[in-house]
Amino acid sequence: MSAHQYDHGHTFAGWVGCAIGSVAAGVAGAGVVVVSGLLIAGGMAIGVVALLVTWALHLSGWGKGPGLRPREEWGWRVRDSSAPGGHDECLGCRLAGRRPVHAAGVVPVRAGGETEAAAAVGADSVR
Fold this sequence. Notes:
Blueprint: H1 12-33, H2 37-62, H3 91-95, E1 106-111, E2 114-119
Antiparallel strand pairs: 1-2
Helix pairs in contact: 1-2
């Protein structure tokens, strides 16, 4: 259980990504201060590593998808049970080729703020 009243997405993937990203910002910032292109490039490279590590942790279940999770999964040490199948509206899962499977081949489609059911065939098309 988390001590927080709301699900703010405190996850292991988020904490690790933030820590590596902070190191990246520090290295790039030091490069700006000492006018070193090598340090700036190194900081940017560490930033890319932070992105990839966070994404890998998210896909392995240590992150969270958009929206609320069940209350028992709010703790940052709890793995996300829905990660292997992919999250609805999650760019990271879509980039990894994961699409959530919905009951009876029906995929929710949002158009103009409304949610309606569309057949899985053609669900990716835009009206």
